[in-house]
Design brief:
2 copies of one chain form a homodimer.
Chain A (H helix, E strand, L loop, with lengths): L1 E5 H12 L13 E7 L2 E7 L3 E8 L1 E2 L2 E2 L1 E5 L1 E6 H10 L4 E6 L4 E6 L2 E6 L17 E5 H11 L14 E7 L2 E7 L3 E8 L8 E6 H10 L6 E6 L3 E5 L3 E6 L18 E6 H15 L6 E8 L2 E8 L3 E8 L2 E4 L3 E5 H11 L3 E6 L6 E5 L2 E8 L6
Antiparallel strand pairs in A: 1-7, 1-9, 2-3, 2-8, 3-4, 4-19, 5-6, 9-10, 10-11, 12-17, 13-14, 13-16, 14-15, 15-28, 17-18, 18-19, 20-24, 20-26, 21-22, 21-25, 22-23, 26-27, 27-28
Helix pairs in contact in A: 1-2, 5-6
């Protein structure tokens, strides 16, 4: 194996692949990154068994030469060192050559490294994906959907299925649901193509978070391929594989109340900031509890107290309050997470009593919904 | 106590004072910040007994009203909460009032906090400084001198005096020396005024680091007042007190070799980058050891190896090498620290053999010197 490559591009691709490489792994070769060099270009692979990331640097892109391959081949190199070395090399290009006994020679300008490689044949194979059905979304939209739901997955392993986001494809719509059983995030998007089959899978929240970090904002499409136990996300030069979670996701549709007894319409930012202030004291107590009461025809009161620190109270104007009077308590943190996810100027909150879950919706977007369970205090 | 104040300015001053407040203190009242309000303005104080910081927000500055005092007085408030609350308030101004039982009322727009205060009379008094002699430096210069020396103080408490920077005032010059006994940083600056007395004090490295964070880059003067066991740094609205370290600082002047056997002149940045690359492997081994050899009339070789990872070697061009051939080993980290501190395009390194300390100087600035002890390997 011997090739010369544009260093910037190698740095960029390595950075993506490194996201899948964990330094704490029981499989030593997975602390490495695999390089496969053929006439098409240089393929980098990183994996922690759950997530695998593959990037391709083509020899030529948009008429620009990115890599010159002198001899094809493959090697596995210590990911952290290889990454650090490449980032700190002095010149714009770098030459990499595998010599005797897997010794790998890296040269850029006057700097010459010789590092111990590992046999690429011992690197685990990537999951085999049979391409039955391919779904496509703009990258931007997928990123938004992830951001608006993934925060609500459970961080506890007591019910592992809840650490993932539930994907449902039905009637040409893709729906994401995440819940940790204290709150629920729901997001829907139409699919372009015609998909007749129904699919139900659960994608680990961690995988979606990593994917979101790697994908740049762009309206370019991303392809998604589903199998029994894997999902593959694919853009022009990137393949991101994640295992799926096993088991049945609970039926969450019946959690969302169909009717409401109190409806409040208000500005999301003003509400968020008032909750943020109330949470300053609330976070000292248990559950981060903030109290919310309708006090006038068009105003609510947000309050919180902590015996050690003190008390906070704030009146927030609404656009309208309809239905019954209400006093309710909830986690300030969950409410802030929900408001940040909704990303809307104005919101409608639908309550069905102080002991029932309530729902926050955007006034101008039916494709997102956030649900929060209250806390008993009043 | 009752006053209204510009919130931005309060945020800014609190941020400075918070630098002295530690959440881990054996004196509970020191987790608080003291507010003293009189007709001149609002004075904030934070302290961890070693460092005390006082900032003054005058009622009027440059014809702009910063604070309106309705009733003078004082209170101590939980520093972290008070800071968080002020930062998150909705309006540009905030009203603060002490009511019954030290309850402190904070109001901005519709947000109203009522937090538990502590009696300001129980807050420790700041050190009393008798103004015998005041030294003045431009803030920029003081910051540079700190940056160029403080990194070399010892982090070990086995010889506490070495955790400080030695200040010497003699012949109208101020000299800083710091050493952890493996390397030494030395920096000198002329003093403007006429100072006939000789002073020798040791200022804790931690205090200088905190001071450096608080001071903004500026050519404005900063005043320094020395006493037996305290130093006070003073700008227009800030007073920064630090205790001094007790004990005698070792005589470091005889550590610096008067002559040399090998002199190398080279570009600092190229050298730094080569050492940085060599350190990638060196840091895996013990002591972070990098090898340095004169190899040609005008080139040196930097190398390092780690049995597990591999080897790196790099030739670096010099401007000149005079004197004996040399092979020497040293800590890559110490050399990088020294080169970053020197801040010079070109440097001269003076060696007196592989087992003797060597000295790095700027080619165009006699006021700074860095000394490093080698490591035995060749």
């Amino acid at each position: 194996m011997k090739f010369t490559i544009q260093r910037d591009r190698l740095v960029e691709s390595l950075q993506d692949v490194m996201k899948a490489v964990s330094s704490r792994t029981t499989i030593p070769i997975l602390t490495g990154v695999k390089l496969l060099v053929n006439d098409e270009g240089v393929t980098l692979t990183g994996s922690d068994s759950d997530i695998s990331i593959e990037t391709i640097i083509p020899t030529v892109e948009d008429d620009k030469v990115l890599a010159e391959v002198e001899k094809t081949g493959s090697i596995v190199l210590q990911a952290r060192f290889f990454n650090d070395i490449i980032r700190k090399l002095p010149e714009d290009t770098v030459m990499i050559e595998v010599r005797e006994n897997l010794q790998t020679f890296i040269k850029s300008g006057n700097a010459e490294f010789s590092i111990n490689g590992l046999d690429a044949d011992e690197y685990p194979r990537l999951p085999q994906i049979e391409e039955e059905e391919v779904f496509t979304l703009p990258i931007d939209l997928l990123k938004t959907m992830i951001r608006q739901t993934v925060f609500a997955v459970s961080t506890s392993e007591t019910r592992p299925i809840l650490t993932g986001v539930h994907w449902k494809i039905e009637n040409n719509e893709l729906t994401f649901v995440a819940t940790d059983s204290h709150r629920l995030a729901w997001r829907k998007a139409p699919l372009d193509n015609n998909h007749s089959h129904t699919h139900n899978v659960v994608v680990p929240g961690k995988s979606l978070n990593e994917l979101n970090k790697i994908l740049d904002d762009s309206q370019e499409p991303i392809e998604m391929v589903l199998t029994q136990n894997q999902i593959l996300f694919r853009t022009e030069n990137l393949s991101f594989y994640s295992r799926l979670l096993e088991g049945n996701y609970p039926d969450t549709s019946r959690l969302i109340p169909a009717e409401s007894k109190t409806e409040v319409v208000m500005n999301a930012k003003e509400f968020l900031q008032a909750i943020d202030r109330a949470s300053l004291l609330a976070r000292e107590g248990r559950n981060n509890v903030v109290k919310f009461s309708t006090i006038e025809e068009e105003a609510v009161e947000i309050s919180s107290d902590s015996p050690e620190i003190g008390r906070v109270v704030e009146k927030v104007q609404t656009q309208s309050i309809t239905g019954e009077e209400l006093k309710i308590s909830f986690s300030g943190k969950y409410l802030m997470d929900a408001l940040k996810a909704i990303d809307s100027t104005d919101i409608r909150i639908s309550f069905t009593g102080a002991m029932r879950p309530f729902v926050i919706r955007s006034l101008d977007n039916d494709f997102i919904l956030q649900l929060i369970l209250p806390v008993r205090t009043f």
